[in-house]
Amino acid sequence: MCTIDARPQLRKLSARFFCGLIVASLVAVVGCGGGSSGPGKDSVSGKVTLNGAAVSGTVTFIGPDNRPVESPIRPDGGYTIEKPAVGANRITVRGMLQPKLPKDAPPTGTTAGGSGASPPEKYANPNTSNLSFEVKGGKQTYDIPLTP
């Protein structure tokens, strides 16, 4: 009588199944990251204006975790904050560095290296800017109209 031992083949099949299960699990976990890990998936964009005119400088969102995320303000006043923290964000708007002018020089209303208006100094500090936005995830729009 001839007998065939099927245990080695069963072990190979079990090992392949187990490895396949691990790979499938890893793909599912990594591939389903919740939608917030890729660039542009979570963002806030809009325009920063002062009395209707574009502002130049930077916008910073400071999330509940106190992590700042910064964006330059484009010449048209537009900005895009990539991957802001979800939740209530405090916002600052800072102008670009201005050159020292003589005391008798009239104010120019623009910043050095930028084509837009300079934001008032109160917007540079999150405690005095009174600017905030609730980030919910995904792509959102928030225009920031500043006043003197």
Annotated CATH architecture of the domain at 43-99 and 109-142: Sandwich
The arrangement of helices and strands along the chain is: HEEEEEEEEE
User: How many strands in all?
Assistant: 9
Overall radius of gyration: 27 Å
In summary, what is this structure?
This protein is of the alpha+beta class and 148 residues long.
Could you explain how this protein is built, in words?
- There is one protein chain.
- The protein has 148 residues and is an alpha+beta fold.
- Helix content is 17%, strand content 30%.
- It has a domain at 43-99 and 109-142: Immunoglobulin-like, CATH 2.60.40.
- β3 (57-62) and β4 (68-73) form a beta hairpin.
- The radius of gyration is 27 Å and the shape is elongated.
- It contains 1 helix and 9 strands, in the order αβββββββββ.
- The chain starts with 6 loop residues before the first helix and ends with a strand.
- Residues 23-39 and 107-113 have low confidence and may be disordered.
- The strands form 2 sheets. Strands 1, 2, 5, 8 and 9 form a 5-stranded mixed β-sheet that branches.
Write the layout of secondary structure elements.
Blueprint: H1 7-31, E1 43-50, E2 53-54, E3 57-62, E4 68-73, E5 78-82, E6 87-94, E7 132-135, E8 139-141, E9 144-146
Parallel strand pairs: 1-8, 1-9
Antiparallel strand pairs: 1-2, 1-5, 3-4, 3-6, 6-7
Features:
single chain, 148 residues, alpha+beta, Immunoglobulin-like, 9 strands
